[in-house]
From TrEMBL:
PROSITE patterns: NA_SOLUT_SYMP_2, NA_SOLUT_SYMP_3
Membrane-protein topology: Multi-pass membrane protein
GO biological process: carboxylic acid transport; sodium ion transport
Transmembrane feature ranges: 6-25, 75-95, 115-134, 146-167, 179-198, 258-280, 292-313, 444-477, 498-517, 523-543, 555-576, 588-608
Full protein name: Cation acetate symporter
Family statement drawn from the similarity comment of this UniProt entry: Belongs to the sodium:solute symporter (SSF) (TC 2.A.21) family.
Recorded GO MF terms: symporter activity
Pfam families, sorted: SSF (PF00474)
PANTHER family referenced in this protein's UniProt entry, alphabetically: NA(+):SOLUTE SYMPORTER (SSF FAMILY) (PTHR48086:SF5), SODIUM/PROLINE SYMPORTER-RELATED (PTHR48086)
Subcellular location: Membrane
Keywords: Cell membrane, Ion transport, Membrane, Sodium, Sodium transport, Symport, Transmembrane, Transmembrane helix, Transport
GO cellular component annotations of the record: plasma membrane
């Protein structure tokens, strides 16, 4: 069966499964919509949490970051997994004991203030929309290649899919859909990883393959790396030969920025509103901690494979594109050529550099995610250190001498003394998706990774959109705007609040689609910004709310505002206003500034709370009760 048919089959079958589950588990009440009725098994919730959290950044972009940055990319691995330990130990059981539907609900009740609740809703919207922009962009990238449509069209298709199972099903539909999505995405990531490990090193497990010798000779453009050379040694040597100033296994970010990024990602993970709300969906407090443990296990299956996949991808890309003739390599295969390539691959041979074996390159080029500028006019692709041209590729309608799409960007010369001039642009978000094609893996493996990439992006997008809609309908409308001042409860009926939640979700989907079409950066970078915002706004206010009886509403509000405004402002200045670093303080990068925002939040909240009146005695008693994480039954309804 041809590749395109298999992709339609795999993606179509997985979507039919997700939508079928959403219809089967359709929410009948606000409690079903927000927290799945509070009756989800810990193992199922662990899978759903893993799918919710392992976003397009994890599935699509993380291996690309590690592949391109080498050791510097490890900060993302450590931060995102370490955050789950914080979440399981410090937050999950206590928040479940409190038993509210949303993070603004916790903030509003713990800090006895509707203004604090409103500030928390604003923080939710900033964090979630920043995060969801990356997810919708990820959907567009996947559709761009595998359904061969424009990136923007792909985003719109993704919006329609999310609408069906997020707006109709709510948290109940999403929970069981995400169990299925976890199964799809983990199989889709691990199966190609195993194939690649066997192909590159002969080892079955990618975790073992990372530390093993390579199973072939390859020419990196400067010298031939011999079979039996250890994979990481081969990459270090290749990086040195191609002019990359720092070997693959050495970092260039510096200890300071690596530390700040790790802490921001850890605290951001523990403060992500769409992940925290998952711990309100289990029956008991003990189950919240068990769920977090299962989620960490399920997440680690993918994360421990990422370094190996990243290294295989970098090696395969250099091995297969370096000095290959563009015209013959990217041409459409005849039936005879395809049969010859398949026969070689079936016998365990390497056909990835054969004529027409690089047709994948031309397909990604059509989507604008790969670009080749033939600077020396030899018709061959050269890959080395340095940008081939300024910015992302802008294509004209003309075709070059070798049949490539012509790029109008200004060419950038190679650094002085570099042996090879770089001619190739590869979008880092496509590394995982393109990897099976680069390695000429079977078509069903390529189709499987398409389904997995969509599962990863859509599962997180749905969870985020639900959090946004719940924060607007439940917290802003139900608990602030339409609040009964005598009873303190919402004037809205259950059905009215459910309708408002679905309406808010529709608006959120439209805004998310716009951000996906006009993204503020590549997927993992955008997601890192969202984690920084969560670290600066939510993590301190929740920690203080649980462990500091003296923390009052004034301190919480001041801390949230300072943390959010400082972090958001720093990101805007250094990412959108001026990328040269002119506005950086002490060389702190925008991806790690959430750590500084978090410490500012803690300091401001402490100072303000000690300078103002303590919280009422009943609030202090409630905090004492929360700290004994036993005895909670169902999540509280309102």
């Amino acid at each position: 069966m041809d590749l395109q048919t298999l992709i339609y089959l795999f993606v179509g079958a997985s979507f039919a499964l997700y939508i079928g589950i959403a219809i089967w588990a359709k929410a009948a009440s606000t409690k079903d919509f927000y927290v799945a009725g509070g009756g989800v098994h810990p193992v199922a919730n662990g899978m759903a949490t893993a799918a919710d959290w392992m976003s397009a950044a994890s599935f699509i972009s993380l291996a690309g970051i590690v592949s391109l940055l080498g050791r510097d990319g490890a900060a993302y691995l450590m931060g995102w997994t370490g955050g789950y330990v914080l979440l399981a130990m410090l937050l999950a059981p206590y928040l479940r004991k409190f038993g509210k539907f949303t993070v603004p609900d916790f903030v509003g009740d713990r800090y006895y203030s509707d203004f604090a609740r409103t500030v928390a809703v604003i923080c939710v919207i900033f964090v979630s929309f920043t995060y969801v922009a990356g997810q919708m962009r990820g959907v567009g990238v996947v559709f761009s290649r595998f359904l061969q449509v424009d990136v923007n069209t792909g985003v719109i298709i993704g919006m329609c899919i999310v609408f069906f199972y997020a707006v109709l099903g709510g948290m109940k539909g999403i929970t069981y859909t995400q169990v299925a999505q976890y199964c799809v995405l983990i199989v889709a990531f691990i199966v190609p990883a195993v194939f690649l490990s066997l192909q590159v090193t002969g080892e079955f497990l990618p975790q073992v393959g990372l530390g093993s010798p390579i199973a072939f000779d390859f020419d990196n453009g400067v010298q031939t790396i011999q079979q039996g050379t250890y994979l990481l040694t081969a990459l270090d040597q290749t990086f040195t030969d191609l002019g990359f100033n720092i070997p693959y296994t050495e970092g260039r970010a510096g200890v300071w920025n690596t530390f700040l990024l790790c802490v921001a990602l850890m605290a951001g993970t523990a403060g992500l509103p769409h992940v925290i709300v998952r711990f309100f969906t289990v029956p008991k407090v003990r189950d919240a901690r068990i769920s977090a443990g299962w989620a960490l296990l399920f997440i680690s299956l993918l994360y421990t494979s990422v370094p190996g996949v990243a290294a295989f991808a970098r090696l395969n890309l250099i091995k297969n594109v370096q000095n290959n003739d563009y015209a013959t390599w990217t041409a459409e295969c005849s039936a005879e050529q395809e049969a010859a390539i398949n026969a070689i691959m079936a016998d365990g041979g390497d056909a990835a550099r054969m004529p027409c074996a690089g047709n994948w390159f031309a397909t990604w080029e059509k989507g604008g995610l790969i670009g080749w500028m033939d600077k020396n006019g030899d018709g061959k692709i050269q890959f080395a250190n340095g940008a081939p041209f300024a910015g992302k590729p802008t294509f004209s309608d003309q075709v070059g001498a070798s049949g490539q799409r012509m790029i109008t960007n200004t060419a950038i010369a190679a650094p002085e003394g570099q042996a090879i001039e770089n001619e190739l642009y590869v979008d880092r978000d496509i590394i995982v998706l393109a990897n099976p094609e680069i390695a000429r893996l079977p078509n069903w493996v390529i189709a499987l990774i398409a389904a997995g990439g969509l599962a990863a992006a859509l599962s997180t997008a749905a969870g985020l959109l639900l959090v946004i809609s719940a924060s607007i309908s439940h917290d802003l409308l139900g608990r602030v705007i339409y609040k009964d001042k005598e009873t303190g409860k919402s004037k809205l009926t259950d059905s009215q609040e459910l309708m408002a939640a679905r309406g808010a979700a529709v608006v959120a989907i439209i805004v998310a689609g716009y951000l996906g079409i006009n993204p503020p950066g590549f997927v993992a970078q955008v997601v890192a910004f969202a984690f920084g915002l969560a670290a600066a706004s939510f993590f301190p206010v929740i920690i203080n709310g649980i462990f500091d009886k003296r923390m009052n509403r004034e301190g919480a509000i001041a801390g949230m505002l300072v943390g959010l405004i400082f972090t958001f402002g720093y990101i805007i200045l250094n990412v959108f206003v001026d990328k040269s670093g002119a506005y950086e303080m002490f060389n702190i990068k925008a991806t790690g500034v959430g750590t500084i925002g978090m410490f500012l939040h803690f300091i401001v909240a402490y100072v303000v709370s000690r300078a103002t009146a303590p919280p009422p005695q009943e609030i202090q008693d409630m905090v004492e009760d929360i700290r004994i994480p036993r005895g909670a039954g169902e999540a509280q309804a309102h």
